[in-house]
Amino acid sequence: MGLLSQGSPLSWEETKRHADHVRRHGILQFLHIYHAVKDRHKDVLKWGDEVEYMLVSFDHENKKVQLVLSGEEVLETLQEKGERTNPNHPTLWRPEYGSYMIEGTPGQPYGGTMSEFNTVEDNMRKRRKEATSLLEENQAVCTITSFPRLGCPGFTLPEYKPNPVEGGASKSLFFPDEAINKHPRFSTLTRNIRHRRGEKVVINVPIFKDKNTPSPFIEAFPEDDEAARASKPDHIYMDAMGFGMGNCCLQVTFQACSISEARYLYDQLATICPIVMALSAASPFYRGYVSDIDCRWGVISASVDDRTREERGLEPLKNNNYRISKSRYDSIDSYLSECGEKYNDINLTIDKEIYEQLLQEGIDRLLAQHVAHLFIRDPLTLFEEKIHLDDANESDHFENIQSTNWQTMRFKPPPPNSDIGWRVEFRPMEVQLTDFENSAYVVFVVLLTRVILSYKLDFLIPLSKVDENMKVAQKRDAVLQGMFYFRKDICKGGNAMVDGYGKAQNSAELAPEEYTLMSIDTIINGKEGVFPGLIPILNSYLENMEVDVDTRCSILNYLKLIKKRASGELMTVARWMREFITNHPDYKQDSVITDKINYSLILKCNQIANELCECPELLGSSFRKVKYSRSKTDSSN
Amino acid sequence: MVQISNSGGTPRTTALRHPSELELKLFPETTFQPNHRQAHKINSNTQELRDCIQKTLNEWSAQISPELVREFPDVLECTVSHAIEKINPDEREEMKVSAKLFIVGSNSSSSTRNAVDMACSVLGVAHLDSVIIASPPIEDGVHLSLEHLQPYWEELEYLVQSKKIVAIGTSDLDKTQLEQLYQWAQVKPNSNQVNLASCCVMPPDLTAFAKQFDIQLLTHNDPKELLSEASFQEALQESIPDIQAHEWVPLWLLRYSVIVKSRGIIKSKGYILQAKRRGS
User: Fold this and answer.
1) Residue A339 — pLDDT band, cuts 50, 70, 90?
2) Residues of A in contact with B31 (CB under 8 A)
3) How far apart are the CA of A630 and the nearest CA of chain B, in angstroms?
4) Which domains, from first to last, does chain B contain?
5) Adjacent-strand bridge partners of A285
6) What is the mean predicted confidence (pLDDT) over A306-329?
7) pLDDT at res. B186
8) Distance between CA B141 and CA A55 in Å, rounded?
9) Partner residues linked to B269 by β-bridges
10) pLDDT at residue B112 above 70?
11) Which end of chain A, C or N, has fewer beta carbons within 10 A?
12) Do residues A432 and A452 touch, judged by C-beta distance below 8 A?
């Protein structure tokens, strides 16, 4: 999750003193990059996925599963045996927030040819295998978005008690600091967010009210005033960054051919974020309870919310400069392409000085306000050795602010002096249990970008409506119950937007009938007379591409999964987990996930991921046979 | 804009009373045509093609004087010029230009040459990177054999040898058919398309043969008959009522696509169609 520098991390008070310095130089670094590479064009498509993993350990005797705090060692060995031994090694591994987490990506980015879609799953399998091979007996790597008993007593191996006193990182009642990755960036981030905020982070997730769930559901925290004040009735209360950043997700980054294509894709995909998030819903349980949400997004958002009471509008502005409407981790606040301009209906808080400076440097208003908006934030970590930098050749200060703006989409300028082009990152997806599912979601998104560019599609709706969609998308069973604002005619306005940013549409007021509420099924699969559907459009694109039979078969199975998840024929991971719990003999309809239930669930997840058992309600029944016979023939690699 | 030209391409000054050929250049632009009406029943390619034919004819007939249709030169070239997108020579290297040729009528094999020439001139390129020939129509109950393919394949080979095409391929051949062609042909097939429906259940013998001889197995989703004589005439009649559509038979149809190779993007796509007046 972002930039890793070695060195001595500064306290919040020290970091704060340098905040203006970091911003000032961050902007200079951005300007150097911008001026050097703004005219880059004809870059090819390159893309890659990022999968996050949790290390778990099964105690079969006591029917208990725990998160193993060995991420740092596992990572060290993976890197040692992999990228450091062979620069062409097929996998790359990076640290993640939890000491029980690792992140894996393909060793080299994928390219623009269709057959590369057929290598994604094999590469993910390799990653799973590689990481698994380093684990001890009864341990496994799992791709689950949120560990159901995260923050419950004894959820880590070795076990640690939380130490809720000042001096540590989280000061959490539930999440011990030992569960945070040992790299100083992570604990510093945790502590500085809390210090900047002036109190612990507050996460309240509505509890799912089952038959025997107490009503009202109230947890008492007599020992802790802060918790007593912050926790809400009928909610699961959490108080640490780890409850959010300690979750796993699935991301895709792609290189655009030019800055304008990157801006166009950034905007178009922003509207898709809530849809794909609901489709990928996989995190219904928090701190040992069944919640009423299916997605992690709001939890992470609250887990890193460093805004002060003034900034949140609870107190008059005195020491701070702005009221800020969202956490650093949230949906995007402005479109970047000119065709998006008229849909920018969210009040944008910007650093006016930076904005003016960027305009003077010849940057257009849309990009200038985007950067000036990111830069209303303070740096959260700073290393003593990394304060004074060469702005022409380094970008740490820019990245410092950029990489702690965790939004649904990220617009990524090329690193200085590199041959990398302008990139866009798609960040809303929840990670799925299997490599098959994760490949399916990744391939779906990348194909969608190709279709958007080929057919010049236009999905834009007012950004405030996208925000409304984000809220709906996280609700329980949003994939089937939720209604989402979506543009009706996506084939219209898209003309020639890609080159030269396109023309701003002149009509002042947007006709309300430009978008309407649709179900995910309609958006994905289409509905006669209403909407053509993203999958039918993808199929039309695929018919015009040269695709070999193996690749086409894989894509067919991937799109079938997406299609059936959208129609409800197959369950989302969230839905499946809920049903699993409900049918567990130990479950008492009281929204409580005991150690034993958790053990059964994670064991089952691991079996599904390793193809030791079928799960047709989640994955469909037909694909496995085919995949099996194919992977058998492919066993040579 | 209407271009009237004879088959040699020189503009004619006098129009003949009885035209014998009709060329349609159909450009669906690269927009996705939402076909709400037909959703699942009609193959989307068939629908797309019919929409294109009609759209082109309508636009074209609206632009020309009624006399022209009545006077009829011997070749009618219906072109909606704003839809034409010639490939910029500077960008040619980045593009892959592919075509699939559908023989519609039972006719001479020179169709192949005409179609490829016309595609090159429409796109402003010297050669096509790949041409796939759909299996020519044969009578019901007859099994497609090498003899059916040979005349077309020889034409394709000639076009490869004269550097008009880089690679040639087939569609819907089974292992035996592909093997026969492979053994006989001077220029070997570089690919064979199979129907999308079978991409997950490929016959092992075909897969093995293709692997051994380095023939790419690709997928398509075209119906058995992409354009029937009747549906063409129907579209023609609707757009140009004076034309006596029943006299016209389509000879061939070529679908081309221009792909930006390293980016997986469809730059453009279109159809070219040639029809002939019966008995001329």
Assistant:
1) very high
2) 455-456, 491
3) 10
4) 21-29+41-277 (3.20.20)
5) A290
6) 97
7) 97
8) 61
9) B257
10) yes
11) C
12) no
pLDDT of B66 strictly over 90: no
Contacts of A427 (CB under 8 A, 6+ apart): A249, A251, A273, A406, A407, A408, A409, A410
The two tokens of residue A498 are 């890609």
pLDDT tens column, A436-461: 999 999 999 999 999 999 999 999 99
Selecting from B217, B221, B257 the residue whose C-beta is nearest the C-beta of A549 gives B217
Whether the pLDDT of residue B153 is over 80: the answer is yes
CA–CA distance, B118 with B22 (Å, rounded to integer): 13
Is residue A232 exposed (0-12), middle (13-18) or buried (19+ Cβ within 10 Å)? middle
Residue B196 sits at the chain A interface (C-beta within 8 Å): yes
Residue A491 token pair = 């084939």
The number of beta carbons lying within 10 Å of the beta carbon of residue A510 is 15
Confidence (pLDDT) at B18: 42
> Which candidate from B34, B45, B218 shows the least CB-CB separation from A546?
B218
H-helix or E-strand spanning residue A22: helix A19-37
Contact check, Cβ <8 Å, B265/A450: yes
Interface test with A, best of B27, B82, B193, B263 (most A CBs within 10 A): B263
Output the pLDDT for position A497: 39
Determine contact: B92 vs chain A, CB below 8 A: no
Q: What is the mean pLDDT of residues A215-238?
A: 95
Listed ranges A327-336, B15-24, B35-44; the one with the highest mean pLDDT? A327-336
Cα separation, A169 vs A162, in Å, equals 11
Point out the residue among B44, B216, B257 whose CB comes nearest to the CB of A548.
B216
- State whether B216 and A450 contact (CB < 8 Å): no
B212: left (phi over 0), alpha (psi -120 to 50) or beta: alpha
Residue B7: both structure tokens together: 């088959």
Closest of A490, A478, A487, A488 to residue A566, by C-alpha: A478
**Which of 1.10.150, 3.30.200, 3.30.590, 3.40.50 would CATH assign to domain A12-203+242-426?**
3.30.590
CA atoms of A40 and A147, how far apart (whole Å): 43
Per-domain residue ranges for chain A? 12-203+242-426
ipTM: 0.88
Give the position of tokens 């479109």. Answer: A335
- Work out the average pLDDT over B176-195: 97
Tell me the one-letter amino acid at A251. Answer: Q
pLDDT tens, B195-225? 999 999 999 999 999 999 999 999 999 988 8
Write down the residue that tokens 């023609």 correspond to. Answer: B236
The model's confidence at residue B142, banded by pLDDT at 50, 70 and 90, is: confident
Q: Smallest Cα–Cα separation from A574: which of A208, A234, A246, A271?
A: A208
Distance CA B187, CA B168 (A): 8
Comparing CB atoms, the residue among A455, A546, A556 nearest residue B31 is A455
pLDDT band at B228 (very low <50, low <70, confident <90, very high): confident
pLDDT of residue A595 exceeding 80, the answer is yes
Subunit contact B31:A456, Cβ cutoff 8 A: yes
The rounded Cα A280 to chain-centroid distance in angstroms is 11
Average pLDDT rounded to a whole number, residues A144-168:
96
Is residue A212 a contact partner of residue A590, using CB atoms and an 8 Å limit? Answer: yes
**CB spacing of A114 vs B264 below 8 angstroms:** yes
Q: Is a pLDDT exceeding 50 seen at residue B258?
A: yes
> Six-digit token pair at A520?
């995910």
